[in-house]
Amino acid sequence: RASSGTMQAYKVDAWSFSTHPTMAGDGFNWTQLSMSRAGNFPPGGYKQYTAEQVREKGAMWVWHTTFARSIPAVITGLAQELSDELSTWDVDTMRRKWGQKDVMVAFSPDKYFQRGWLIDNKTGRRLRAPHRQRMLVDSYLDEVLAGRQDEHIAVQQSPHRDLSEFGLPNSPPLLEDLVKPTLQATNLWVATPPKTSVLHYDWQDSVLLQLSGSKRFTVIDPARLHTAYPCVMQMESYVRVAPGVFETRIVDREIDNFPLVNVSHPDFERFPLFKDAHVMTIDVPAGAALILPAYWYHQVESFAEPGKFSVALNYWFQGHSLATRLYRTLRENVFLNCTLPAMPGELHPCRDSRLRD
């Protein structure tokens, strides 16, 4: 959109405004640089293991076949015992078990808990983050039961040094030896649908345990990360001044892990390189784990039965694989700077897509 709000045709590839505008078309072989990745992917695009295989072959077998090669995997049954219990929980059970536990709760005016916006041609693009505050699980459940239509609520990326106070493991089962030595963070996630975390990547390797409900990950291979149009944006945050009422404020921080492409409704006219992206959908059911190497762009949708919750844990750690170092180098050098103003008389290269949901 132009700053006036009127729609205009604009066929220039946004990549031409990036730090390396000719790289995508001058013979630079991304796939070859990424160790002939096409031969590494199994049918379906990601590995599928069982907890029994992990128990038999060990945590380092998981490392060598997934993180070391930067290939995702689903491990069924890794969290089955926990899932069998938590999948039965309703509001009353969660209140009884966790009601007095302290968590980080996010409030958003819609189901997308982060989203990029072009403010205007001079200001550039900003990422709007949800309002976040700590509260007891009791208070979170009260907000959920209020059933407001003008805001969405979730325990989102709630950091905890000791998950045992929730009766949850501080390391993923059978993978302790892999994760513990370089563990960076452990997070709790609780949501009632609809809840979507829009497309982004994480800087660390991750193991996610889905304890109840399910998640759907839409992921992009970082060997072709340029096809998602990586960018740098200024952050701003929603401030919840009253239930369902939000203001915004500038945050003194730039963020670089949310790209321009809308993976749900890709605009191929504005982002033609996205036609070459390697995109996969990975469903993670209750009781399963997702192995997600660093720098994989991912969009996450959470699902649960009526009256139940989608509950998950994730463990971030530094695996330091060669693939991760490669993608970190690429990402640090290839991006659009969306904090800059547009050239006089030009539409902003980081403006909102024609196609958005």
What key phrases describe this protein's structure?
alpha+beta, nine-stranded mixed β-sheet, 8 helices, 34% strand
Question: What does this 3D model show about the protein?
Answer:
This protein is an alpha+beta fold and 357 residues long. It contains eight helices and 18 strands. The chain has helices spanning 30-33, 51-57, 59-65, 80-86, 91-98, 137-146, 176-179, 322-333, and strands spanning 47-50, 73-76, 102-108, 115-120, 124-129, 131-136, 152-159, 183-191, 195-200, 205-212, 214-220, 231-242, 245-255, 279-284, 289-292, 297-303, 310-317, 336-337. Strands 1-2-15-10-17-8-7-3-6 form a nine-stranded mixed β-sheet. The radius of gyration is 21 Å and the shape is globular. It starts with 29 loop residues before the first helix and ends in a 20-residue tail after the last strand.
